[in-house]
Amino acid sequence: MSTAKSSLALYGGQPAILNSFPARKAFGESEERAVLDVLDFYRDKGEDPCYRGPFEQQLCSSFSDYMGGGYTVAVATGTASVYVALAALELPKGSEVIISPVTDAGPLSAIIMQQMVPVVADSEPNSFNTSWQQIEKKITDNTSCIMLVHCAGLPTDVDVISREAKKRGIMVLEDCAQAPGASLNGKLVGSYGDIMATSTMYRKNIAAPGSGGLIFCKDEALYHKVLAHSDRGKPLWSQDYIERDPSQHLFPALNWNTNDFSCAVALSSLKRLPHTIAKRNAFMEAIQVRLNAESHVCSIAPWQGTPSVFYIQVLVDVEKIGQRKHEYCQALIAEGVPMNPHYKFLISDWEWSHEYFNTPTETPNATNARDCSFNLYVNENYDESHVSAIVAAILKVDQYFTTLTS
After folding, report:
1. 233 and 149, same structural domain?
2. How many other C-beta atoms are found inside a 10 Å radius of the C-beta of residue 344?
3. Coiled-coil region(s) at which residues (predicted)?
């Protein structure tokens, strides 16, 4: 039986979802305790909170352990983590950095501001993630680095990308802002490339108040460069370094330091990351099974490895709804489905950036993937009842829109 237009919430009907979805509430009791621990620590010492303090060091040590061993530096923002990681690679000015097609403006700006030339690789069909097949098309003799994004928490084929890049002497910077804790072939993303940058911004799977970022690598010499680039060129690893003597600094660099409050909260969130990932992944798996079996319009593509879900890209068969994706998504929103109907984080859409490219910025696969999908919001408090509510809303809207083309 078809659904009458008047029954849709968009046109005055009763919404399918009457109850609001649960907020994440990432700042819980353990985070509150973490902040109080910082206050107590400095009150007992009779000192004001500093940077590079014990809570920051604990976060860095714990994240290095989580990643399987190596070195971590905490910085003020996720963008800072990419900027510093890229600077630490000390790539030739004017060399080309291949970047994923779906990303934030911060990583692209890091390339431009460090006087390198961005080159955008397309994604795979029906995906926001790029691949070696797409990257290889963009490699030239001037390619120095691949800035690889794991979009939505889904691992790319980073094993192949890192192996092939190494053969060619090309560095790999993994941007894991949306995917901390995701893995491929049992190995965590961020540990394949030469260096990893990730975000601890308040909405990310590892969450600190406001903004934050982490840089991880396994090479000690590279770690030293990260340290220096993160704090005004200081050789912080040197036993002879005197804190208040800028004459010892190695080169010009900015201050990207964070603080113990942010790091203490991020550490609390890191401890909960396996639970966060398990709950979000279980939700995605459950809704994939239901949608792929029950909806004639929406589906969720298979993925590789173990994700660390940040949002869920839901593919829409626009042919079955008469190319009316905008109206279809507005109908779903009116029914109460939590979503972003039109993701705007595609480099090809950013006209301000195009003057900095020497090559075309069109990425037809990524554009089509965006134009034929919406992003379903998710957090670790969603459960089977929310799967059922979302699927029911989608099926209701499906019934009306599919009649328009029959």
Report:
1. yes
2. 9
3. none
Q: Does residue 263 sit in the same domain as residue 316?
A: no
Torsion, Cα 351 354 359 364, to 10 degrees, reads -20
Which pLDDT tens digit goes with each residue over 138-190?
Answer: 999 999 999 999 999 999 999 999 999 999 999 999 999 999 999 999 999 99
pTM higher than 0.70, yes or no?
Answer: yes
In a domain, 24, yes or no: no
Of 269, 301, 331, the one marking the end of a domain is 269
User: Looking at the predicted structure, is the pLDDT value of residue 128 above 70?
Assistant: yes
Range of the domain at 221: 29-269
Question: Which residue has tokens 């080159």?
Answer: 119
Domain count along the chain: 2
Helix axes 78-88, 105-113, angle to 10 degrees: 30
In this structure, the answer to whether residues 195 and 344 fall within a common structural domain is: no
Please state, in angstroms and rounded to a whole number, the distance separating the CA atoms of residues 372 and 336.
Answer: 20
Please check whether residues 182 and 74 belong to one and the same domain. yes
Indicate if the pLDDT at residue 235 is higher than 60. Answer: yes
The amino acid sitting at 255 is: N
Backbone angles phi, psi at 325, to 5 degrees: -60, -40
Residue 74 and residue 95: Cα distance in Å, rounded?
27
Catalytic one of 93, 204, 218, 234: 204
Q: d(Cα 324, Cα 130) in Å, to the nearest integer?
A: 27
pLDDT of residue 2: 59
252 and 290 both lie in a single domain: no
Q: How many residues in total does the chain contain?
A: 406
Strands 96-99 and 117-120: parallel
* Residue 138 is among the residues annotated as catalytic for this protein: no
User: Distance between CA 283 and CA 309 in Å, rounded?
Assistant: 9
Could you tell me the sign of the dihedral formed by the alpha carbons of 215, 217, 220, 225, in that order?
Answer: negative
Do residues 210 and 178 both lie within one domain?
Answer: yes
